[in-house]
Amino acid sequence: MTSNLSTTHSPSRRGFLSRAAMMAAAPAAAAIVGPGLAAGRAEAAEGDLPSYAPVPAASFGPALNADGYFVGRIQDNLYWVTDGFYQSMFLAGARGVVVVDAPPTIGHNLVRAINQVTAEAGTSSTVTHLVYSHSHADHIGASSIFGDDVVRVGHVETRRLLREAGDPNRPPPTLTFSDRRVLAVGADRLELEYHGPNHSPDNIFIYAPRQRTLMVVDVVFPGWVPFKNLAVSQDIPGWVRAHDVALDYGWTTLVGGHLGRLGVRADVELQRQYVHDLDDSVRQTLASLDPTPFFQQYGPSGNAWAIFKGYLDAAAVQAAAPVVDKYLGQLGGADVFTVDNAAVLFESLRIDAGRLGPFGIRP
Ligand SMILES: [Zn+2]
């Protein structure tokens, strides 16, 4: 699913800016980094900012329209929407629309996309249900724009977390479930299932069997390495297992919730391999990295945190190096987030798996 954007992926600032202009991504970028940085300070800071390898052309999705979004049919009456950073999905039934997630960066463009599709199909544009993949504001923080009449659907833990958050932009779901719930939409259905904590304690799998489409958010990032710190996941072993859970479903299209394109099974398999490779490298680093210099440097002053930081930072850099080499050119951002991802996997190996290295049981 590449596009004509692939010819403009120069790593130069001019290339980036021209591509950003073509994506019409400026409003979303401004929302993410703040208007000051997007409008004025980006140029001043340019000289201090690191440069990265070009993103592979196959990591990009279709071009955005003038409003800054793309809406496409997955199959039949199931559609997806992206702004290049985030994704949403909706099922357009004869008598109403069921939406999954409402990312704030897409915001009112989600309503425009729904109106566009339903006007062309001659079906109702009324959004009857809004499904939450999980409680995080970056994926459902535009829930409020759908008003009070929409039925919000989510996991019981999502409801608990959102009651606790008290965010007016994220009203808690009123239709909840613990393990499984099927939403019937005309002849179609969405199967909502909970398989335990992974990225968040409440992250669910949303499966459209007739369209052979699975939506699971913040687990797999088609065409890219996972976001910083393995997608800022709260249960790393659960997040790693979620790759296998996803592959157990009989789907051909994946909606990952992030970036500009859909996924296929090979994307999940490739990211699972990336995580396995990183795990292997982290284990080798634990066995081979000598902690002595950090104890010698910081021990005499009693700075325990400096010992940990020096050792853990060095471990992340060492573990990431061969994995960056392997995946550069295959996955976008391999040189951006792999050190952060290695750090989290190293920490998980220590505190989840009990492989404590120099901080294990004292002889
Ligand atoms: Zn999240």
From TrEMBL:
SMART domains in alphabetical order: Lactamase_B (SM00849)
InterPro entries, A to Z: Metallo-B-lactamas, NDM-1-like, RibonucZ/Hydroxyglut_hydro, TAT_signal
Keywords in alphabetical order: Signal
Keyword set includes Signal: yes
Residues making up the signal peptide according to the UniProt record: 1-30
Keyword Kinase: no
Metallo-beta-lactamase domain: residues covered: 85-258
PANTHER family assigned: ACYL-COENZYME A THIOESTERASE MBLAC2, METALLO-BETA-LACTAMASE DOMAIN-CONTAINING
Protein name in the entry: MBL fold metallo-hydrolase
Record lineage: Bacteria, Bacillati, Actinomycetota, Actinomycetes, Propionibacteriales
